[in-house]
Protein backbone atom coordinates (compact mmCIF):
# COMPACT_ATOMS: atom_id res chain seq x y z
CA UNK A 1 0.00 0.00 0.00
CA UNK A 2 1.27 3.45 -0.86
CA UNK A 3 0.31 6.37 1.34
CA UNK A 4 0.73 9.96 0.24
CA UNK A 5 1.45 12.65 2.79
CA UNK A 6 1.95 16.39 2.37
CA UNK A 7 4.64 18.23 4.27
CA UNK A 8 5.75 21.79 3.58
CA UNK A 9 4.19 21.86 0.13
CA UNK A 10 5.81 18.60 -0.99
CA UNK A 11 4.04 15.30 -1.47
CA UNK A 12 5.88 12.31 -0.06
CA UNK A 13 5.23 8.70 -0.82
CA UNK A 14 5.45 6.25 2.03
CA UNK A 15 5.29 2.63 1.05
CA UNK A 16 4.51 -0.27 3.31
CA UNK A 17 6.91 -3.10 2.62
CA UNK A 18 5.50 -6.60 2.75
CA UNK A 19 7.86 -9.32 3.89
CA UNK A 20 7.90 -12.35 1.64
CA UNK A 21 6.40 -15.52 3.11
CA UNK A 22 9.66 -17.43 2.86
CA UNK A 23 11.34 -14.78 5.01
CA UNK A 24 8.61 -14.89 7.63
CA UNK A 25 8.57 -18.68 7.79
CA UNK A 26 12.09 -19.87 7.10
CA UNK A 27 11.72 -23.29 8.79
CA UNK A 28 9.86 -26.49 8.00
CA UNK A 29 8.79 -29.34 10.25
CA UNK A 30 9.68 -32.46 8.27
CA UNK A 31 8.26 -35.89 9.09
CA UNK A 32 10.19 -38.87 7.76
CA UNK A 33 8.84 -42.24 6.66
CA UNK A 34 9.62 -45.30 8.76
CA UNK A 35 8.62 -48.94 8.92
CA UNK A 36 7.31 -48.72 12.48
CA UNK A 37 4.39 -46.27 12.68
CA UNK A 38 1.00 -46.96 11.14
CA UNK A 39 -0.88 -44.55 8.89
CA UNK A 40 -3.52 -44.14 11.59
CA UNK A 41 -0.91 -43.18 14.22
CA UNK A 42 0.79 -40.67 11.90
CA UNK A 43 -2.59 -39.15 10.99
CA UNK A 44 -3.70 -38.92 14.62
CA UNK A 45 -0.36 -37.36 15.60
CA UNK A 46 -0.54 -34.71 12.87
CA UNK A 47 -4.10 -33.83 13.88
CA UNK A 48 -3.32 -33.62 17.60
CA UNK A 49 0.16 -32.07 17.49
CA UNK A 50 0.12 -29.92 14.34
CA UNK A 51 -3.55 -28.97 14.25
CA UNK A 52 -4.16 -30.52 10.84
CA UNK A 53 -7.61 -31.51 9.71
CA UNK A 54 -8.12 -35.23 9.24
CA UNK A 55 -7.99 -34.77 5.46
CA UNK A 56 -4.75 -32.75 5.62
CA UNK A 57 -3.17 -35.35 7.88
CA UNK A 58 -4.20 -38.18 5.54
CA UNK A 59 -2.66 -36.40 2.56
CA UNK A 60 0.55 -35.70 4.48
CA UNK A 61 0.81 -39.33 5.60
CA UNK A 62 0.45 -40.54 2.02
CA UNK A 63 3.09 -38.10 0.75
CA UNK A 64 5.44 -39.12 3.58
CA UNK A 65 4.95 -42.77 2.65
CA UNK A 66 5.50 -42.20 -1.09
CA UNK A 67 8.35 -39.66 -0.95
CA UNK A 68 10.12 -40.70 2.24
CA UNK A 69 9.56 -37.34 3.92
CA UNK A 70 7.31 -34.28 3.83
CA UNK A 71 7.30 -30.79 5.32
CA UNK A 72 4.03 -30.94 7.25
CA UNK A 73 4.26 -27.41 8.66
CA UNK A 74 6.15 -24.16 8.09
CA UNK A 75 6.84 -21.44 10.61
CA UNK A 76 9.23 -19.89 13.06
CA UNK A 77 11.72 -22.23 14.69
CA UNK A 78 10.53 -21.51 18.23
CA UNK A 79 6.94 -22.42 17.31
CA UNK A 80 7.89 -25.59 15.43
CA UNK A 81 10.28 -26.94 18.07
CA UNK A 82 7.62 -28.04 20.60
CA UNK A 83 5.66 -29.70 17.81
CA UNK A 84 8.76 -31.53 16.60
CA UNK A 85 9.51 -32.69 20.14
CA UNK A 86 5.92 -33.90 20.58
CA UNK A 87 6.12 -35.91 17.35
CA UNK A 88 9.44 -37.42 18.46
CA UNK A 89 7.89 -38.38 21.82
CA UNK A 90 5.18 -40.22 19.87
CA UNK A 91 7.85 -42.24 18.07
CA UNK A 92 7.73 -40.43 14.73
CA UNK A 93 10.88 -39.34 12.94
CA UNK A 94 10.82 -35.56 12.62
CA UNK A 95 13.29 -32.75 12.05
CA UNK A 96 13.24 -28.98 11.66
CA UNK A 97 14.98 -27.74 8.54
CA UNK A 98 15.52 -24.40 6.90
CA UNK A 99 13.06 -23.83 4.10
CA UNK A 100 14.60 -23.87 0.66
CA UNK A 101 13.72 -20.82 -1.46
CA UNK A 102 11.59 -21.89 -4.37
Description:
With 102 residues, this protein is an alpha+beta fold. The chain has a single domain, classed as Ribosomal Protein L30, Chain: A (2-Layer Sandwich), CATH 3.30.1390.10. It is built from 4 helices and 5 strands; from the N terminus they run ββαβααβαβ. The protein has a 3-stranded antiparallel β-sheet with strand order 4-3-5. It has a two-stranded antiparallel sheet with strand order 1-2. α2 crosses α3.
What is the topological layout?
Blueprint (H helix, E strand, L loop, with lengths): L1 E6 L2 E6 L5 H4 L2 E6 L6 H12 L3 H14 L1 E7 L1 H13 L3 E6 L4
Antiparallel strand pairs: 1-2, 3-4, 3-5
Features:
102 residues, 3-stranded antiparallel beta sheet, Ribosomal Protein L30, Chain: A, two-stranded antiparallel sheet, alpha+beta, disordered N terminus
Looking at the overall shape, the CATH architecture is: 2-Layer Sandwich
- CATH fold description: Ribosomal Protein L30, Chain: A
Rg result: 20 Å
Structural class: alpha+beta
Give the helix level as a range of percent: 40-55%
Amino acid sequence: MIELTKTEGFTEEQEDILVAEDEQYPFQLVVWNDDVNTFDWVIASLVEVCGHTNEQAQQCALIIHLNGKYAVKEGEYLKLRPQCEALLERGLSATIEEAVNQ
